[in-house]
Write a structure and sequence with these properties.
382 residues, mainly alpha, 2 strands
């Protein structure tokens, strides 16, 4: 029991980190697809870059929430009841993203598609911001009483550190998505993705540096940064340098490390707490006073050890299958079919005249015989 509690806290931290690494570039592409694709074919190409991947990436969010419910039901209850309206907002943003993916191409009308483009952009921006606010609230603290009940209001969620965490995650998603599009597209779309990455990179670096320092001060109050916080700063600075130097693959890897470092640093600063009470430190929720019984943790451990490697292998195979670049030319409308040219009437050719009697060599044997008989009958007198 004592070993399984920190194990499951690590599992939940890994699931949230995996969600943000994978779904992070999905969010970024959703926010940037209208800027990278200047016309409908370009926007369709940008969406198709994540088309086979986005729904599988969102499964990580479902598994993370389910793991919190199964391993730490007290944490799940307080968090999801206190952040109820925020969770509704998150579900709304995820739903309109999914609907936009599915319904955008159902009608060949410009206004219809533009409406779903706006919905995709708004949903892709709102989702990481709301989750970032929620994760920031866990670490910075919320009004919680001795019964582990949230006693604040919806507006208490938007404290400065939490809002800054949400903004930081949105900026990392933008840079993550821009580097992904530079890897997955060709031609002018690839060039625009690189320009957008260079535009966003300095703001992302500034936000990550501020986030790392603020997170460190909130959780420890000491001067020297922890290794994960230092890694986040070094990774984002490397991403900026690689983006400006044109190394797309390494830049994407650097943004992934930046995202992972930021998310894990929140959980490292949080442990052994799962929610901090701003009312009284004695009311803090910890991994010990919110954990499930030993039997439940053992049963879930068997399940995760068996099925998590299978899920990871399947997802790696999916990324390998859909690794090719996407071109805007693939989505250009097909040219109209050419009309067949009607056939011109051919003038009748004159039939050549039959050879005369003098052309004896051209006649057949019966014709020659008929001529001989006729000449014999009319040339002799009986």
């Amino acid at each position: 029991m004592g070993t399984l509690i920190p194990f499951w806290f690590i599992v939940i931290a890994v699931l949230w980190t995996g969600f943000f690494i994978l779904e992070g570039f999905d969010f970024g592409v959703g926010m940037l697809h209208s800027f990278v694709g200047r016309d409908d074919a370009g926007r369709r190409a940008a969406i198709s870059a994540i088309g086979p991947l986005w729904d599988g990436n969102e499964v990580w969010l479902i598994v993370a929430g389910a793991s919190m419910f199964a391993a730490f039901p007290g944490w799940y209850t307080t968090m999801f009841s206190g952040l109820y309206l925020a969770m509704v907002l998150l579900l709304f943003s995820l739903i309109i993203r999914g609907v936009a993916f599915e319904y955008r191409g159902k009608r060949d009308a410009t206004q219809w598609r533009r409406t779903w483009d706006v919905a995709l952009t708004v949903g892709s921006l709102l989702a990481p911001f709301v989750i970032g606010v929620a994760l920031g609230d866990l670490l910075h603290g919320l009004p919680i009483n001795s019964s582990q009940n949230f006693t604040g209001t919806f507006w208490d969620l938007f404290q400065p550190y939490a809002v800054f965490t949400g903004v930081t995650l949105v900026l990392i998603c933008l840079l993550h998505g821009a580097t992904f599009l530079a890897l997955k597209t060709t031609g002018s779309m690839r060039e625009r993705s690189g320009r957008l990455a260079r535009l966003v990179a300095p703001f992302t670096a500034a936000a990550v540096i501020g986030f790392a320092i603020w997170t460190h001060v909130s959780s420890t109050g000491t001067f020297f940064l922890r290794p994960l916080e230092l890694l986040a700063i070094l990774a984002v600075l490397a991403a900026v340098w690689l983006v400006y130097d044109g190394h797309e693959g390494f830049a994407f890897a650097a943004t992934a490390v930046t995202m992972a470092s930021c998310i894990i640093s929140i959980f490292v600063g949080l442990y052994p707490h799962v929610m901090v009470s701003s009312t009284n430190p004695a009311y803090d929720l910890t991994v010990h006073n919110t954990a499930s019984p030993s039997y439940s943790l053992h049963a879930m451990t068997v399940v995760v050890v068996i099925f998590l490697p299978i899920v990871l292998a399947y997802q790696c195979w999916t990324y390998y299958v859909f690794r090719r670049r996407v071109s805007r030319d693939q989505f250009l409308p097909a040219p109209p079919p050419t009309q067949p040219v009607p056939a011109q009437p051919v003038p009748a050719q004159p039939v050549p005249a039959q050879a005369g009697p003098s052309e004896a060599t051209s006649g057949t044997m019966p014709t020659a015989l008929a001529r001989w008989i006729k000449g014999g009958r009319h040339g002799r007198k009986l």
